[in-house]
Amino acid sequence: MGKNLAYKLIESHLVGNAFDGKQPEFGENMALRVDQTLTQDSTGTMVYLQLEAMNVSKVLTELSVAYIDHNMLQSGFENADDHAFIASVAEKYGIVYSKPGNGICHQLHLENFAKPGKLLIGSDSHTPTCGGMGMLAIGAGGLDVAIGMARGVYHLAMPKVIEIKLTGALKPWVTAKDVILKVLQILGVSGGVNAILEYTGEGVKSLSVPQRATITNMGAELGATTSVFPSDINTLDFLTRQGRASDYTALEADSAATYDATHTIDLSELEPMAAKPHSPDAIAMISQLSGIKVDQVAIGSCTNASYADLMTVAKILKGKSVHPNVSLVISPGSSAILKMLAEHGALSDMIGAGARLLEAGCGPCIGMGQSPKSGAVSLRTFNRNFQGRSGTKDAQVYLVSPEVAAVSAITGVITDPRTFGELEEIPAPNTYAKSEHYWVKPLVYNTPQLDTPIQMGPNIKPFPVGEPLPNELTLPISLKTGDKISTDDIMPSHAGLLPFRSNVPRLSLDCFATVDTTFPARATELGRSVIVGGHTYGQGSSREHAALVPLYLGVRAVIAKSFARIHRSNLINAGILPLTFAEETDYDQLKELSTLRLENIYEGLESGRINMEAEVGTSGHLKRIIPLKFEGTEREIEILKAGGGA
């Protein structure tokens, strides 16, 4: 039996000989050696506060990088203070520091540090971007990344491996964005939970590394652990043009590799697509949406801000005019790409057409500016379109390719780009530009300077710490939510709140603001409580604030129909008990403020089943035993008993 690439990457990073050469079974806990880590500033302050609390003398990775790409709108001192804190920790531990304006962490890491065969964990859900280069790149919670740096190990339950077999080749105006939208159409936003997506087949050979990175980046919207492409001649070509040919290693699955499931996509049959409001898996053909009036177009993000993407946009805009009723904003993925756009005249073409240019960073993708007007239709080349994520709750956000976005910006309505004429192919540059002056690098990676003073601004507050889990809990329900609650819902992320990412007490005032503005006051009054949720609770961003803030407000358990992978891990690391319904219909029996009683929790965690006594019925006087499930590892059980990870 042959090995798939995902397992080869896992096998090469297993710590010790716990499995005696046998492949771990699905769900078994694995300790993996960490080669690289990345953080960004929205999650990074918590990561480095946790790292400091561990009192380590050295970071154990080959390379760790701290990026500043989210909180760059400096309307007060808070964001700048966070940047200074992260920079000082980076200097102390010999971590590479990427200054504001250098670009988006995933694009920068792909360009500068990603290596086939290495294991990268990052405190951002789109870390799998680097899987486009044959890397095992996994988004994780902040504490997991801090532990990865401090101890060089990442714990992961063995995922399934789903093969996405690509055949054929893309037709003109059809893009890598359409490939991942097709995968989302097939699997849905929870179809990749506890799974790695591995891309195989002849169609892979037709895709460049930037195209592959678009696909692996947005695999996060499937809930996947990560996504991975083989490392082949296209990988070598990209690395050579980046001046890093020595980082190349050929990697692929065995010819007789086996998978838990296989889905085949003929690239030649795809056409331009979009994800409709308000979910990345609400897929429709552009031809079905043509004619819808557009108010705003935003091009960029870690999904679609590569050199090829933006040069294509510039070619489409050249000599044209953005429609009078459309606001077009463009944000490059990195300072090096911005430099190349300037050198090749693309910026002139964009400006000449009436586009607005933003600095290289995450910007509007994470709600940092460029919120559309009330009720607007906004086309975005981003990866998420959850309601309110743009900063405007009633905006209708469609996720599209840069080609669809640029053409629609000109016409003023959603337009099938295939009607626009012939598409000029953008060749890869012989050499990608470098922009070295945005980096602060140690002379030797991870060489500490432990006497470096840590700069702590007044907005940086200690993170909350969970309490040891008792063997029984009696708790009221402080909130009951529906399906697909995202971390944007639990802890909103927009320009008004991002400056407080280091201040959990302040953030707590807006916890669940998009769902129920009365929740913070109610949770505070109750003291200790439980939240009840629906399917894929905690989908979206990896931000551990979505666990730390409820912890601060006294939430001790979350009972849901199902959880998103990273958020479930963050709940456990925070000491919050994540349980699922054994019978989903029992969700309907529960209502807010009803009291729940959990007994023999320790025994239940070991057996995987906990019986809960719940008040049910309209009067709340009836009591019923509702069975709950816990599916976790022995390590996760010990973390919960201790009140959180460390």
Question: What's a quick, concise take on this entry?
Answer:
The chain is α/β, with parallel strands linked by helices and 646 residues long.
Notable characteristics:
646 residues; alpha/beta; six-stranded mixed beta sheet; 26 strands
Whole-number average pLDDT?
95
Give the structural class. Answer: alpha/beta
What is the count of DSSP helices, taking H or I runs of 4+ residues? 20
* Quaternary structure: single chain
Note the beta-strand portion: 15-25%
State the low-pLDDT regions, or none.
Answer: none
Radius of gyration: 24 Å
Q: Please provide the count of β strands.
A: 26
**Overall geometry:** globular
Which bin fits the share of residues in helices?
Answer: 25-40%
Give me the side-by-side strand order of the main sheet.
20-21-22-23-26-25-24
Report, as a whole number of angstroms, the end-to-end distance: 39 Å
Mind describing the biggest β-sheet? 7 strands, mixed, barrel
Describe this structure in words.
- The relative contact order is 0.12.
- The chain is 28% helix and 19% strand.
- The longest helix is centred in the first third of the chain and has 17 residues, at 77-93.
- Helix 2 packs across helix 5 (142-151), helix 6 packs parallel to helix 7 and helix 10 packs parallel to helix 13.
- It starts with a helix and ends with a helix.
- The protein has 646 residues and is an alpha/beta fold.
- Strands 20-21-22-23-26-25-24 form a 7-stranded mixed β-barrel, surrounded by 4 helices. A 6-stranded mixed sheet has the order 6-5-2-3-4-19. Strands 16-15-14-17-18 form a 5-stranded parallel sheet, with helices on one face.
- The protein is built from 20 helices and 26 strands.
- The model has no long low-confidence stretch (mean pLDDT 95).
- Strand 14 (296-299), helix 10 and strand 15 form a beta-alpha-beta unit.
